[in-house]
Amino acid sequence: MSENSAVGTESDFRVVLSDAERNELAAIARELTQTPPALVDDEKWLAVAYRLAAAVPIRVRQELRRFQHDPGLDGVLLLSNLGLDDETLPQTPTRRGSVERDATLPAATQALIALCLGEMIAYQKEKDGALVQNVVPVQGQERTQSNAGSADLEMHVENAFHAHRPDYVMLMCLRSDHENRAGLLTGPLRRAFPHIPVKVREVLWQERFETEAPPSFVASGAKNLRHAVFSGASGDPNILVDFNATRPLDDEARDAMDVLKEHLAAAAQTFVLGSGDLAVVDNRITVHGRSEFVPRYDGRDRWLHRSFIHLDGRRSLGSRVGDSQVIA
After folding, report:
1. Per-residue pLDDT averaged across 129-142, rounded?
2. What pTM, to 2 d.p., does this model score?
């Protein structure tokens, strides 16, 4: 693994592309960057991306399919050596809400891998419905609990308040932070669950929690979601919690959520992503966050591309804008 490769504790899924695989993927992505109108959110461009995704190196597709079938104990897949060159990138964006509309080589690479997993989706009230979003520090937002911040970001299920939250969150590193210290934190429920006392589990299975919708969604009529933290199979549940936005509705629920947080923290892993590393987090069974770092606002700060993926595009069909991938 190169010095820029993801580092952290061992994951069930870690794939380092060979140089031949990297070059093969880059050639497909370059073809996609030259496909008119070279706009990521354009339906005609996406139609070509769907076709070209079938040509992604077979070992990468096999590992993505294996992860899709069973994401393992960690619920994280790591791809390295995607061939992005930090030195040839433009300056890191600095604007809040920054997105990647143009079909750049990194954006095309992101789309190809995402479409091997499922359907790319976005939210009209989040970053203007862009399918590829920039995660960058923004001056003045350092302490916010958002992708524009640089303080510790509480672990959470992405868009926990939303009925059509993503199945997967994809994060591709274009440029790491200056000290190479910003870590993707993941809390795998499958590792924590066996250690959570039965009495605590019983509380977490009940609708005694409420997750607050962000202001941009509230303005369009979104309501806070009342829910249980655990759902699905009794021995292998899904998790629904945002430790910044989820509010317990009684004291016993508060204690249970504190215990859950402790066990997720004990099982947590940290992955420091370098240029050309990509992480896929299963948003149904693993929470994620970020460790603190210090931005310099000099054009070379940490820069990730983020995309959301659904396994089943039909489940949100009635909520999408026209024929687009954007959920209203």
Report:
1. 93
2. 0.93
